[in-house]
């Protein structure tokens, strides 16, 4: 923001994301070699789960910044954006990434709330970045609905604090998650029950759970593609991260039946609704947005199952969804450039028009639809077998149906867009090569974890499952 | 702080807050709504100040001052300035008429008293204040849902935040200091952000009626 020269801004933006990524990797190195980073009186607390989130945020964040280099330039070339606004774009993007990082590195649930609200504010500016009527509408809905939702989460946070008054500290409460976890059995159960409902609805709004999801398809489809990738892949995961923490806490206070039932109900409603909306989309970015609601629903459902295997699958699914969905949104951004439309009906013969982008799109949709041999297939199988083996047959079957429906819908639109005669409309060819590398990395990772889970990842997931009280 | 003048004043103020919130449901002029919100925040700041005095707690005083600065002065001032530049100064065509919304609000207040009772404060004289706090949050939310004008929706959101702040104050005597700072920071930024969007709406749609925001469906 100090300079108006676009190329200089881009260099600073890219360098900044690399520095962030390096910091993220060093945090990962430190935590995985057996340490937990704590500091500032519990305001900073990075255990394995936080470390995993830090790695996702910094790496996908770097991917989004590098993808922006070509995407935003093309937008400027086509006159969608003024060159003078590039510096604001990178400024907001980094504030957004910072806010997400803050939400996962803090061990204080109050600070988590503050960071979540900050992510809404920073990303809203990016959602409305094109300054047209549709993006204004999307941003307005986003801010109003998420602010109301997060207000409820604030009430839940206050209640959590209230339930701990006199338990951890003699003359006051605390919001330090690990301190609350240690004293979970002594927290006020009635208050925590109430707190969990408010927190689930509040952060569930940010996570896109049905029926609080109405802002999500609008915001995710109107934002610039790199931002859509971050919103769908990472921000939703941050909200789910909060729900994971609260779920572990409430389970410690009153057992897993009550939170489990709530999570299963919200999860199933989300999966079913999203799969129906997937069947009738006209806009492929909205299609991807609804698919995000479906996958977040699956994660919430898995949390609700509560068995060790399902918890393992939930965290694994979160990783897989974050990587594949963000990559897929980047690919969608490139398709939008080539065909100059977000309408499914206007994209014809993608594989003929642009073989490379088309191939990655096919791989991406297959991955996100949950077909083998990709990571999402593996984690869905783990979650469902976690459900069946823990004796929750009915709900697992109910979850399976819409997952298959969504698979059908996604592959149908995939074949309509990719194959067949190419469109008669003139198309543009993107001449940037860097995005291809980003697509390849994202999809490569999905293929690897789908084929086999490396030992260190397995150990990490086991470790996280244990720290969340899975047995 | 014992049964002295303080709690009684707080009870009176909280009744005024609830009354004002109900009144806001009937307001149609945008500037009246914003003025009502400023008074609402001033009452809230007074409650905060009295609680701070009773506790002898400096950081509750800071919260009271921040409330005055952000919610009584800055946000209402910029919003009123914006509204006075608009052509449409009052909301027409309510989704739910005033008497009906009044009845819903009374229902929400009863619900709020149930929530407050389930928290069973009992030991403090603040049960009624907690009822008011939860009721104000719910009525604020109602205002957001039943109004189509964006300015009124913002007033609903801010009113809801006031209710939550009051609940937090009564339940916990203030959150941890840095969290409280963060909450105020967020409210300030979200107020400014909403102001920016209202400005853009006014600029590009010549109106703040959200019925015009109808391009995105399904």
From TrEMBL, chain B:
GO terms for cellular component: plasma membrane. It comes from the Bacteria. It is a multi-pass membrane protein. The keyword Transmembrane applies. The chain crosses the membrane at residues 6-27, 34-54, 60-80, 92-116, 128-146, 153-171, 177-198. Its main location: membrane. This is Hydrogenase. InterPro entries: HyfE-like (IPR038730). It comes from Candidatus Aquicultor primus. Keywords: Cell membrane, Membrane, Transmembrane, Transmembrane helix. It is found in: Cell membrane. The keyword Transmembrane applies.
